Amino acid sequence: MPKTLADIKKSLDGHLGKRLHLKANGGRKKTIEREGILRETYRAVFVVDLDQEENAFERVSYSYTDILTEAVEITIFDESGNSAFVVK
User: Fold this and answer.
1) pLDDT averaged over the chain?
2) Could you tell me if 83 and 15 are in contact, meaning their C-beta atoms sit under 8 angstroms apart?
3) Residue 51, CB half-sphere, CA atoms under 13 Å: how many?
4) Mean pLDDT throughout 6-24?
5) Could you count the other beta carbons within 10 Å of the beta carbon of residue 49?
6) pLDDT given at position 54
7) Among 2.102.10.10, 2.30.30.100, 2.120.10.10, 3.30.413.10, what is the CATH number of 5-87?
8) CA atoms within a 13 Å half-sphere pointing along the CA-CB vector of 64
9) pLDDT tier at 78 (50, 70, 90 boundaries)?
10) Residue 29: phi, psi to the nearest 5?
11) Considering only CA atoms, which of 75, 87, 80, 88 is closest in space to residue 11?
């Protein structure tokens, strides 16, 4: 598990363009689960392009702090569709 925001960003930088499953805390005991492609990483946030058939909007962004505080958990898939890397 990455310990700093820089470690989280570095680990996500290595997986740009890959499919992922995102599990986020939606508040009030709700969990939001989405799938998409890790599109871009910036200094403080990362952007995920969502699958259009499952979601009403095109993309979401989360901060690296969301991962550090365990409000967001990401599972990145390899080319064969198997779970390859988990960031939580």
Assistant:
1) 88
2) no
3) 11
4) 92
5) 15
6) 72
7) 2.30.30.100
8) 19
9) confident
10) 65, 25
11) 87
